[in-house]
Amino acid sequence: MSDFHDAAKNGLNQLQFEAVLRQVGAERYHNLHPFHHQMTQGALTKGQMQAWALNRYCYQSVIPRKDAMILARAEDPAFRAEWRKRIEDHDGADGWNGGIARWLKLATGLGLPAQDVIGERLALPATRFAVGAYLSFCTNRTLLEAVGSSLTELFSPVIIAERVPAMLAKYDYVTEDILAYFKPRPEQASRDSDFALAYVLAHADNPERQQSVIDALVFKCDILWAMLDALKHAYGEAGHIPPGAFRPEERG
Ligand SMILES: O=C(O)c1cc(C(=O)O)c2c(n1)C(=O)C(=O)c1cc(C(=O)O)[nH]c1-2
């Protein structure tokens, strides 16, 4: 395991810098989390699967808002033209025919009432704190750090390729239709992360800026990890469901 806190102290060339960023993903991305392993092994109960979808909706719904923050702070029109595609992917043309709507379809396809998902009140406190931290990070840190924090998308095609076939094979109530969210994601994520990676390689031109990007990516991995930790704590063997949070047995 590497400690990434001083990885750029002597300055890195672009190849070395990219290698460190990829190493962060190899060591810290949420495909290493036990909750993800349980999912791909077919070991989640339907209630746990519902809890995952309900909580993950909060993440999906904050993504276009954090991208709007990034957009507002970018001075280069060409950057904005590229970055706004992310908002269009999630919101669609009318707000409800993009990624957020497809995530809602996933959650309702698992048996959750749409209003419980959209309302976000049944999500875990830790989920709401984690997605709030992501939004405020992208609002308050430098544009370079905000772009750096999106680089987990470099690794999302890997976790999607692990998750989707396993969900289809191991859970009889999961269908291709329910998982429509994931279909365009690997291609969109590759387009987005290629752009974001090229941006940080070009703009992190001294050791301090390189380190700020590495730290931003570690922070983002921590956000995703914390969300799965919270699910495991609440809905795993410990069963510590916080007051007011989704309770699977009440939903059948
Ligand atoms: O399925 C996943 O595990 C996963 C991970 C991530 C990620 O790594 O942040 C994103 C997504 N999915 C995703 O669907 C998505 O739209 C997305 C946007 C972003 C971002 O930070 O801008 N990450 C992710």
UniProtKB/TrEMBL annotation:
Record keywords, A-Z: Oxidoreductase, PQQ biosynthesis
Family under the similarity heading: Belongs to the PqqC family.
Domain of life: Bacteria
Keyword Oxidoreductase: yes
UniProt-recorded name of the protein: Pyrroloquinoline-quinone synthase
Catalytic activity, reaction form: 6-(2-amino-2-carboxyethyl)-7,8-dioxo-1,2,3,4,7,8-hexahydroquinoline-2,4-dicarboxylate + 3 O2 = pyrroloquinoline quinone + 2 H2O2 + 2 H2O + H(+)
Stated role: Ring cyclization and eight-electron oxidation of 3a-(2-amino-2-carboxyethyl)-4,5-dioxo-4,5,6,7,8,9-hexahydroquinoline-7,9-dicarboxylic-acid to PQQ.
Species this protein is from: Mesorhizobium zhangyense
Pathway: Cofactor biosynthesis; pyrroloquinoline quinone biosynthesis
Thiaminase-2/PQQC domain ranges (all copies): 21-229
Enzyme class: oxidoreductase
GO biological process, one term: pyrroloquinoline quinone biosynthetic process
UniProt cross-references to HAMAP family, sorted A to Z: PQQ_syn_PqqC
Pfam families the UniProt entry points to: TENA_THI-4 (PF03070)
InterPro entries for the chain: Haem_Oase-like_multi-hlx (IPR016084), PqqC (IPR011845), PqqC-like (IPR039068), Thiaminase-2/PQQC (IPR004305)
Keyword Translocase recorded: no
Molecular function GO terms recorded: pyrroloquinoline-quinone synthase activity
